[in-house]
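Customer escalation, tier 2.

The customer says the design service returned an amino acid string that "doesn't look like it belongs to this structure." They asked us to rerun it and document both sides in this ticket. The original structure tokens are below, unchanged.
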């Protein structure tokens, strides 16, 4: 008999394909040397943090002797930082935000869990478009909810709003979107978001209770070719935006994120009070002190986007030369090509034989594709070209 809860046993049996491939990569690197393994499995940004991050850390180190330098603060983060963040997000999101409209958290994942804990009753549903980040389902289950996915439009991965409307039931409490999108790189258009907001408004009126629209936006900063990343906050009063500084500042391990609510939310004070409570009782207590001081000094800074743009072009060239069927990503740092032969697991295993690490699409609720994270050096991308070609040739 296992000492683990049955639910956790089930999770482990269906654990993240991303982590599986990352671990397989570790074994290959130990055997062949890291320089001979081409790892596109994990969205772990390799670019150094912008210079203001180091400056902020040095300044904070000089104050380490002060009383309470690393002490507790209000559960939603330092009030002075919430004020600064609100001003920054007002420009980014196109709405006027104040300190009481934002809450800092332990990463975007912490913000999403705090939000779900605050609004979900057991048995209620969150809908999202497939493919999707696999952890979403775990987060909903953490709070007794039910996760359901709706397939995006094929090829473009735009939101299929007709399919979403058919999937909404009286139990639907949250619709979660992610744009720029992991794993496809799609960016939802302003027209898509306006239509989505109108749909949720109709359904909310039909069922006599609001359906929340949550937008997960850690890649908002990373869009290509002048593509606009529109905001949901001006479109719908029950909209929230979630994000973090993991990708734009290359700080994924520091775990600093935030949640911003629409200023038009009628029950804003009640929601923020609930979020402040759940941010605490989930065990986060408060966002990291060091990370908050870093963020305060780096708002408006980001890593060099030209590096990611060059890597995107290199990966596109390698895949085109190898004969792959794919959509050029409009944002984020992922490609999501079709798996030659149609069996994504079999094809990812063929890539593994070439010491190329990718993640099967079924790990994102979308079999028949595979994900490549191009947050690696351009030399790695180009060095993997022969391996991609040989793997593709096996399924010709």
């Amino acid at each position: 008999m296992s000492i683990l809860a049955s639910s956790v046993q089930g999770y482990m049996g269906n654990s993240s394909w991303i982590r599986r491939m990352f671990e397989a990569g570790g074994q290959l690197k130990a055997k062949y040397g890291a320089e001979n393994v081409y790892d596109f499995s994990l969205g772990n940004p390799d670019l150094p943090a912008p210079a203001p991050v180091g400056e902020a850390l040095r300044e904070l180190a000089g104050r380490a002797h002060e009383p309470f330098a690393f002490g507790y603060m209000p559960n939603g983060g330092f009030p002075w930082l919430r004020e600064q963040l609100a001003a920054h997000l007002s420009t980014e999101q196109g709405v006027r935000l104040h300190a009481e409209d934002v809450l800092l958290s332990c990463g975007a994942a912490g913000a999403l869990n705090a939000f779900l804990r605050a609004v979900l009753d057991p048995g209620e549903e969150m809908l999202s478009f497939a493919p999707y980040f696999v952890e979403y389902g775990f987060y909903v289950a953490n709070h007794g909810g039910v996760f359901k996915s709706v397939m995006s439009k094929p090829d473009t991965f735009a939101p299929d709003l007709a399919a979403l409307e058919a999937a909404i039931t009286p139990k639907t409490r949250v619709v979660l979107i992610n744009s720029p999108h992991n794993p496809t790189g799609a960016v939802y258009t302003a027209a898509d978001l306006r239509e989505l907001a109108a749909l949720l408004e109709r359904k909310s009126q039909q069922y006599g209770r609001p359906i929340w629209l949550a937008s997960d936006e850690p890649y908002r900063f990373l869009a290509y070719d002048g593509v606009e990343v529109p905001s949901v906050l001006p479109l719908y009063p029950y909209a929230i935006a979630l994000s973090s500084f993991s990708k734009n500042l290359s700080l994924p391990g520091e775990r600093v994120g935030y949640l911003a609510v629409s200023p038009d939310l009628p029950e804003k004070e009640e929601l923020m009070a609930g979020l402040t409570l759940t941010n605490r009782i989930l065990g986060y207590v408060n966002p990291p002190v060091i990370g908050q001081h870093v963020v305060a000094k780096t708002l408006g800074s980001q890593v060099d986007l030209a590096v990611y743009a060059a890597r995107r072009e290199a990966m596109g060239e390698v895949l085109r030369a190898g004969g792959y069927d794919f959509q050029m990503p409009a944002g984020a740092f992922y490609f999501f090509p079709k798996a030659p032969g149609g069996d994504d697991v079999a094809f990812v295993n063929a890539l593994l034989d070439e010491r190329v690490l990718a993640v099967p699409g079924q790990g994102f609720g979308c079999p028949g594709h595979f994900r490549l994270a191009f947050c690696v050096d351009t030399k790695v991308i180009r060095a993997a070209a022969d391996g991609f070609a040989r793997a593709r040739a096996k399924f010709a």
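Tier 2 assessment: The sequence is consistent with the input. DSSP finds 14 helices and twelve strands in the chain. Residues 70-298 form a domain with the Aspartate Aminotransferase; domain 2 fold (CATH 3.40.640.10). Sent an explanation to the customer and offered a walkthrough call.
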